[in-house]
């Protein structure tokens, strides 16, 4: 009876968003007379940070401080349409829609500023601090607030913009069945090290090392947070969680958090993450999205690590101590594989 | 049904109310006092979202009969900040991105406060032990552990 260490690797190629019906999202951007901007979305931020990221995208596109942008989400009664927060699509799809809306609003804002400064709009630029000035002549400037006031009360203009991002529905090649279900893909590779107890069947996480390629990380701290939390969820799916432990037999299903097991703070392990940035051609500022991909490579890597440790191929999730013990018994004992 | 008069300290202020027999402290805090910071997660002590301090000790308010806190001091997340100033733990949670959806955060903060009040310089293992009754589904716990450790080590010598 012993504890065996093993190491496993997995790589992921993950499509951003879906293509069923085109997968569109819309955004509306408008200013109020204080010169601050509101982004209206129906998209939902569950804590993954879409509000922060769309705020950054809008501010950057408009050329105004991020503090001057407010993002209003998750009201499908009043907001423009969104397909939803799933398929790692938020940053990419909603971000692109916000970018398009902000671009249109910026055009109106610059026209309104041009009228006030009596210059051509093409000669104007924003300074990112709430002012619009003549290129090469920073003293010839007007604040976005004064532009908003002028547009509202003198020029009779709404500084606003509409945006939609719609991937055209992919045609299926009748000869080959080939289609393009997604426009960009994120990638990940993860190495998991585990310790398997051949007496109890328990699998303990020892460490993880991973690399994620997700376009440009628009908010590196949020990306890191997503990757750390998502890897935990991967451990949970690999080793703990299931609503139907004896599927398809529904008996013994968990009824509460005492029976629905998840890794606790003592079950996590050191995780070293490298973020690689390879901007996507059609992403907002090159972003793809970490999304679901952050959990996915953990599962096969853990299963491979268990094989490496005790020589059993686990093909049903979650990999519970009971399943590991049965597999080891069926094979006549643990058979540690060569470590590479 | 007869109601029972109940008086206790709530975040440093005296409160007096009438409760039905069998009402738990979580319901009393949220529905009768209007302090929405303790969260209802599971209602049976499995998740820690409703954690509060009673006379300085960590308790699950969903499993505590309201009548049992008569004459005692109850602290919730609502009383953690000092006026406009956040508690060091709240600041550390922000700085370490220790919250995503935020539903577990009130309970986590109270569990962390209970720990630091009795042990100002805990080890990582002690922090893990202290929050092990609180479920978080977003962060993977690592940022929460780091946030608590940052407060434990800042300004205090750590073993």
Automatic annotation (TrEMBL), chain A:
<dbReference type="InterPro" id="IPR046867">
    <property type="entry name" value="AldOxase/xan_DH_MoCoBD2"/>
</dbReference>
<dbReference type="GO" id="GO:0016491">
    <property type="term" value="F:oxidoreductase activity"/>
</dbReference>
<dbReference type="InterPro" id="IPR052516">
    <property type="entry name" value="N-heterocyclic_Hydroxylase"/>
</dbReference>
<feature type="domain" description="Aldehyde oxidase/xanthine dehydrogenase second molybdopterin binding">
    <location>
        <begin position="3"/>
        <end position="268"/>
    </location>
</feature>
<protein>
    <submittedName>
        <fullName>Xanthine dehydrogenase family protein molybdopterin-binding subunit</fullName>
    </submittedName>
</protein>
<dbReference type="InterPro" id="IPR037165">
    <property type="entry name" value="AldOxase/xan_DH_Mopterin-bd_sf"/>
</dbReference>
<dbReference type="Pfam" id="PF20256">
    <property type="entry name" value="MoCoBD_2"/>
</dbReference>
From TrEMBL, chain B:
<protein>
    <submittedName>
        <fullName>(2Fe-2S)-binding protein</fullName>
    </submittedName>
</protein>
<dbReference type="GO" id="GO:0016491">
    <property type="term" value="F:oxidoreductase activity"/>
</dbReference>
<dbReference type="GO" id="GO:0051537">
    <property type="term" value="F:2 iron, 2 sulfur cluster binding"/>
</dbReference>
<dbReference type="InterPro" id="IPR002888">
    <property type="entry name" value="2Fe-2S-bd"/>
</dbReference>
<feature type="domain" description="2Fe-2S ferredoxin-type">
    <location>
        <begin position="4"/>
        <end position="80"/>
    </location>
</feature>
<dbReference type="Pfam" id="PF00111">
    <property type="entry name" value="Fer2"/>
</dbReference>
<dbReference type="InterPro" id="IPR006058">
    <property type="entry name" value="2Fe2S_fd_BS"/>
</dbReference>
<keyword id="KW-0560">Oxidoreductase</keyword>
<keyword id="KW-0001">2Fe-2S</keyword>
<keyword id="KW-0411">Iron-sulfur</keyword>
<dbReference type="InterPro" id="IPR051452">
    <property type="entry name" value="Diverse_Oxidoreductases"/>
</dbReference>
<dbReference type="GO" id="GO:0046872">
    <property type="term" value="F:metal ion binding"/>
</dbReference>
<dbReference type="InterPro" id="IPR012675">
    <property type="entry name" value="Beta-grasp_dom_sf"/>
</dbReference>
<dbReference type="Pfam" id="PF01799">
    <property type="entry name" value="Fer2_2"/>
</dbReference>
<keyword id="KW-0408">Iron</keyword>
<dbReference type="InterPro" id="IPR036884">
    <property type="entry name" value="2Fe-2S-bd_dom_sf"/>
</dbReference>
<dbReference type="InterPro" id="IPR036010">
    <property type="entry name" value="2Fe-2S_ferredoxin-like_sf"/>
</dbReference>
<keyword id="KW-0479">Metal-binding</keyword>
<dbReference type="InterPro" id="IPR001041">
    <property type="entry name" value="2Fe-2S_ferredoxin-type"/>
</dbReference>
